[in-house]
Amino acid sequence: MKKGLVVFDVDGVIYKDVFLKKIVRSKGPRKFLKILMLGISFYLNKMSIDKLLTDGYRLAGDFNVEDARNIAKKIKRFSNINEAIQILHKEGYYISLISSGIPNFILKSLAGEIRADSYSGLNIKIKEGKIKAGKIRTISKVKIVEDLLKELNLTWEAVISIGDDPNNIDLLEKSRIGVGFNPSLIVRKKCDIVIEGNDLLEILPFIIPQANLPLKLKKERFYWKREIFRKAVHLLGCAFPLLAVLNRTMIIYILLGTIIIYSFSEVLRYMGISLPIVSYITRRAQRYNETKGIIIGPMLLALGILAAILFFDFKVYLPAILIVSVSDSLSALVGKKFGKIHIFKLKNRTVQGSTVFFLSSLGILFFTVPVQIAFPAAVIVTLFELIPIYNLDNFIIPLGTAFFLHFTMGL
Predict the structure, then answer these.
(1) Fewer CB within 10 A of the end CB, N or C, for the chain?
(2) Bridge partner list, 119
(3) Number of other residues whose CB lies within 10 A of the CB of residue 126
(4) 274 φ, ψ to 5°?
(5) What residue spans define the domains of the chain?
(6) Which run of H or of E encompasses 132?
(7) In angstroms, what CA-CA distances link 331 with 304, 342, 369?
(8) Helices (runs of H) and strands (runs of E) counted in the chain
(9) 117-128 pLDDT, tens digit each
(10) C-alpha angle with apex 332: 402 to 409, nearest 5 degrees?
């Protein structure tokens, strides 16, 4: 008897890329551009999976089977799929790989390698060692799972499905737990859980009871890994005022470029399309509750730093940027770990976190501004930090601190 059935999509969940896209890419840039446009239409739910696959394999033409196998082997995978499946097996789950767009001969090799219990892929004609794809009609993933449930004597209450694209929506909605793994815009609105990241072990705390998991796999551990990475990125803001001394104009352009690239990347990420490097960083730093829209925190931080450098003197923007980079990071970590007493019933503001913010900002100000200004400035900036609007402190702290110091120092 199995405790449950865990269904993995393959493209975008196990593979970091799409198998069909990789095949068409080998046929030249024009065909690659066409498959990209087809993929975008599909991810926006404007094209059926059958039409996408029919047109896509038509672009690929007669493709050699061995070449297809080699391409599949070279596709990068998300981290720790083998470990995740091993743990799920120990917990009594049956693992199935179901893909509408990958041929069965590819899935057979993959299932054997990662020790999945079954697989179901595209039944595609092979003649003289070449793929011969005509008009494609896929089988519903729900129908495939229903047949599996009969074999395993299970019900839909035992099904956990993991997918990323619109072809998985019916399956995700029917499953007891539908997990969107780096999902497209349409999918993230339909699933129970959204996980943005690169590590498949991160799905386990949402499937297996916390008591059955080792410490390193508990949800809290993953939360803190994200939070520490997030604050490490936050601390990079310290470099900008120092580099601006060497070339202020260059840093202004770098910040402007960062804001534009990040904004573009966020729109793509929300649609389920990754921009290299930027999307990777965002996904590693994203909190579990940041799944419903564009994450504006980094953009506001960059805007705050940019405004401080643009409009104020070095003596002013240096402490302002150091405070938002260092003090804000320290207060968040301490507040989340040790914060017990909330200030004015603000959910994300605690006495412990704000105390650390005040003391660290006072230390920064003590070494960067006249001593008589340090204490009142630390009080003012701590009040800025208490602003409850989501992530607005990233912008208000550097700009508000710079304004206060500018006028009190008579610059």
Answers:
(1) N
(2) 97
(3) 14
(4) -90, 140
(5) 4-214, 220-408
(6) strand 130-132
(7) 18, 13, 22
(8) 19, 9
(9) 999 998 888 888
(10) 15
In order along its 411 residues, the chain shows pLDDT tens digits of 789 999 999 999 999 989 999 998 888 889 889 988 888 888 777 888 889 899 888 888 888 899 999 999 999 999 999 999 999 999 999 999 999 989 999 999 999 999 999 999 988 888 888 888 778 888 899 999 999 999 999 999 999 999 998 899 999 999 999 999 988 888 888 889 999 888 999 999 999 998 888 888 888 888 888 888 888 888 999 999 999 988 999 999 999 999 999 888 888 877 767 777 787 788 777 777 776 667 888 888 999 999 999 999 999 999 999 999 999 889 888 888 886 777 766 667 788 888 999 999 999 999 999 989 999 999 999 988 887 666 788 899 999 999 999 988 866
Q: Cα–Cα distance between 330 and 338 in angstroms, integer?
A: 12
pLDDT tens, residue by residue, 289-334: 776 667 888 888 999 999 999 999 999 999 999 999 999 889 888 8
CATH architecture of 4-214: 3-Layer(aba) Sandwich (3.40)
Contacts of residue 376, Cβ cutoff 8 Å, sequence gap at least 6:
408
Cβ atoms of 407 and 395 closer than 8 Å: no
Calculate the CA dihedral of residues 122, 127, 133, 135 and round it to 10 degrees.
-100
Q: Which residue has the tokens 């643009």?
A: 310
What's the alpha-carbon Rg for the chain, to the nearest Å? 25
Structure tokens at 33: 């551009």
What length is written for the chain? 411
Q: Which amino acid is at 159?
A: V
8 Å CB contact between 343 and 372 = no
Please give the torsion angle defined by the CA atoms of residues 55, 56, 59 and 60, in that order, rounded to the nearest 10 degrees: -140
Q: What is the largest CA-CA distance in the chain?
A: 85
